[in-house]
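Quick start: read one record
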Amino acid sequence: MTLALALAAAALLAAEPSNLPAGHPPLGSEPQPPAASADGLPKGHPAIGGGMTAPVPAGEMPEGHPPTTGRAPPTAEELLQQLDGMQGLREREKTFEIASSLGKLYYTNGRAQDAIPYFLQAEEKAKAVRELFLAQRKKLGKTPVPSAAEAHCGFAAQSPVEQMAAAAAERAKKGDTAGAAACARAALEPVLEVESMRGNALFLSGDADGALKTYERVLEVSPTQGDALFGRSALLYETRGEDVKALRSAHEGFEAFVAAYPDSNRTPLARKLGRMSDEAVKAGGMKKWQASRAEDRRIRATKLDLSASAPPMMAQGPMAGGGGRPMGGAAGGPMAGGGDGASAPMISQETMQAMQNVEHTPEMEAQLTKTVEQGEELLAMGRYDEALQAYRQVMPLRPDGRVKAGLAWTLVGLGKPTADRVWGVAVGTDPAAVDQLGETLKAKGDVKGAKALWSKLAASAPDYAAQSSLQAKLSQ
């Protein structure tokens, strides 16, 4: 079991009736010394030396051992089900370690929105030490903050945040500014990780502005923290394309990331986006930059086709090898940002993958599939706004044909400005998945919706319609 699961299980045991063997000391209580026998050993302990008992046969437990339940440790999905069923769990007082572990458990299993309250609780536990660090660093002025080792903070790898914060506060009381800053900074290391994950969770939940603010909080303490540095720069590039100041900040952030993490798997992308953001700054904004690149391509295409009959080449997303903002092609998946989605930014799949880097566990895949199925149920009932929320959660983590089809039909149903573009992506990359969505809608009772989808698909992809059974479905 991972540390996150272990700590979350501890939270369960502390909150619910114990299922420990009879006579076991309760968790968190002071252990009582066992009664000693005449030879000084605890009662029931095997004799040492010549009086040692015979070896226990394989598969059997020693005499007096508490009975075992025979149950395996809970899976992440089972643990989450137990947590979901616990009334008032979010409101209960928790240590930083418990709150952050619960947040990570939800986050790594595809439930980003449910993770946010626990991340906030964990960060609240570190509020005082954060303020202490900022105050002590300000006192130091231009003097760099020493490392925890240089300041002899004496923290172990698993030292609790509250314990490290208390040590930093004690240094500050004694007037040891450098030592207090160093120890406080060490205490904030796990906090910065939690804040970065909350930024990612906000991004995945469609709150780009909230994610930006969270990344900036991290960078206020640690200007080169990798996840926040890349995440902030990528979001500025993707969502603030007409703000030259924001684009310049994105460029500087990408450059700083490349300098600080030359061997990171995100460095090639950071270097490429840094160059593109710089070009957009020089052009006066993303639209002007796109227009200039489109014109360059048109001129080159005209020179290649002397009849000048070829249409101008459209700017493609940076992940597709083009130079403009991502338009949701095969290499870039659409992702609605904040607000009602009417002008939602189109976030490239590569950027999203680089920002979150979430391991796809079996539990996470099961949760994603469940969310997609919920989106399809909502589509069949005509509840497009709710379906959009479901697809927003899944798209960054699983931008496959099924999800693209569902998101496209949702946007069509809502009449969003991006609907035609996303529909074109879905049909162009996997028309069979769009066709299958029609089957799903029909099976769920939405025959009218299925026929409307098939009719639009037939008009959008006549080649596919000619070699499939679309016409037969429409005539039924």
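Confidence is low (pLDDT under 50) at residues 1-36, 303-346.
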